[in-house]
Amino acid sequence: RIFPNCDDPPLHHTDPGKAYIDMVEVFGYDLNDIRQFIINSIEGAFVDESDKKRWRIDWLKEFDSLRSKLEIPTSPQ
Known about the structure:
Elements lengths: L8 H4 L3 H10 L5 H14 L4 H20 L9
Helix pairs in contact: 3-4
């Protein structure tokens, strides 16, 4: 499962936000992919299941809300 990460931001001249931007601009992933990357990152986190459950609800709600404000057609998954 893929999810963007920046192991050492100063060394690699990046940050977590830029890693996601690069996934779209450099590698051609779309917003459906980005949403899945968010899910993958939550699933891969070393936190308890209650945190993961809360993060899935909160983060995906925020992502979906922001995406709905864009005038970009979404392709079916």
